[in-house]
Write a structure and sequence with these properties.
single chain; 43% helix; alpha/beta; Rossmann fold
């Protein structure tokens, strides 16, 4: 067992007896929740849906949602009835109430306490220091990553899968240029290998989530993963950037790039935006029409040019995550960057398309990377192996790079690898 594997084992072992998700959320009421005491989710929004799904997975079945929008009375959300606050007071006073809103956690706590609900039966209230971690653990970006990695591993555990790649883990760890990257690497792999240990999740987010470290939970008004491509401690924008956006979606990151250029007072030369999803491509054209020197390409990026099956955003699990998929509902054109850009000088490549296509896209850009050594911002989370395979691949193409890991959102996705000279 090498030092990386040993560090992973030690971190997992150190948290084996720490409280889990349900212990932290319900405290002394955990058994009540598991044995059928009514659990009500207060807030029928996106976070409520995520909490509902996560509670189901952990064996707790909420009975309903409560929402302050009385027009939703009698409707259903996540297949559960939505009740008014008046009905909550009349019929669910002795239930366990989970506040499911970060934005309104303070007013909702005051509302419940002001109506004489028992404080110890209100969960995720404003005074609960663990509430933000509970919310981030429940996000679809966290839970979907846990489940997708398990599916990728098949009958093996995540830990067994990682141990089979012990040498690659060690080699990738040694490539990272700072201690923060190395600790992030060990921290995330330990969390994944622990089968989603709640204590390790909290440690990871509090130590490595850039928006949490800079703004606090939920206090960044925007999409942090886009922001941190261009506002970080690793890369800086330079005059004359030729920016390549692989997985451009609706132009959200193009917008963030243009705004960052304004912020840092640099003029870019050109933007190439690649997006194969037909619906997203039309939005991309519309949203970038007002920017100078933007070329939009209705194609995916791959190791070589051709045509591949693709699951469009209209049929994907997440509406923005159209993916290259053998069982996809449409066919799309794919290109290699080396062939598509034909020797054009490139200074910055961002890759974060849906699905595990980045290794193929990197191989299709090997000439550009070796010749021009552009700054790279690459999603390192779409597959379990991404966090170590992508650094190793980039290093083989261009050993001159310094490599860094940063975690750029509130949930478990969007760990990115940056490469710069």
């Amino acid at each position: 067992m090498n030092s990386v594997s040993k560090q992973i084992f030690e971190r997992i072992k150190s948290t084996e007896k720490k409280p889990g998700f349900l212990d932290v959320l319900f405290g002394e009421h955990k058994q009540e929740a598991l044995q059928g005491t009514p659990v009500v989710l207060f807030g029928a929004g996106g976070l409520g849906a995520e909490l509902c799904s996560t509670l189901h997975f952990h064996g707790v079945q909420p009975v309903c949602f409560c929402d302050n929008d009385d027009s939703r009375e009698g409707s259903k959300y996540c297949d559960l009835p939505v009740i008014t606050f008046q009905e909550l007071k009349e019929s669910f006073r002795n239930s366990l109430i989970v506040i499911a809103s970060h934005k309104y956690i303070g007013p909702m706590t005051d509302q419940l306490l002001g109506n004489r609900f028992s404080g110890d039966r209100i969960l995720c209230k404003s005074s609960d220091v663990s509430a933000p971690i509970v919310f981030m653990f429940s996000m679809i970006g966290t839970q979907s990553l846990f489940s997708s990695y398990k599916q990728q591993c098949g009958t093996r555990t995540v830990l067994d899968t990682l141990l089979e790649q012990e040498q690659s883990l060690s080699q990738a760890y040694d490539l990272f240029a700072d201690e923060h990257s190395q600790d992030l690497f060990i921290s995330k792999l330990s969390l994944l290998a622990s089968d989603g240990n709640f204590e390790l999740f909290g440690d990871f987010i509090q130590s490595h989530s850039q928006p949490v470290l800079e703004f606090g939970y939920g206090n960044y008004d925007g999409t942090p993963e886009d922001y941190y491509y261009f506002n970080n401690d690793v890369l800086s924008l330079s005059p004359g950037e030729v920016y390549i956006d692989v997985g451009a979606y609706d132009g959200d990151t193009v917008y963030t790039f243009v705004e960052a250029c304004k912020k840092f007072r640099v003029d870019y030369t050109k933007i190439h935006a690649f997006e194969p999803d037909p619906h997203c491509y039309q939005a991309l054209l519309k949203n970038t029409a007002g920017y100078k020197n933007v070329v939009c390409h209705p194609s995916g990026v791959w190791s070589q040019s051709g045509v591949l099956r693709f699951t469009s955003s209209e049929n994907a699990v997440h509406d923005q995550a159209g993916t290259i998929d053998r069982s996809g509902d449409i066919e799309v054109e794919v290109v290699s960057l080396d062939e598509s850009l034909q020797g054009e000088k490139v200074t910055f490549i961002k890759m974060d398309p849906g699905g595990n296509v980045i290794p193929e896209a990197i191989m299709g850009a090997a000439g550009i990377i070796a010749r021009h050594k552009p700054k790279l911002a690459l999603g390192a989370y779409h597959a379990l192996e991404s966090i170590f395979e992508i650094p190793l691949l980039v290093h083989r193409i261009c050993p001159d790079y310094r490599l860094f890991l940063r975690h750029n959102t509130y949930h478990l996705c969007d760990t990115d690898m940056f490469a710069t000279l």
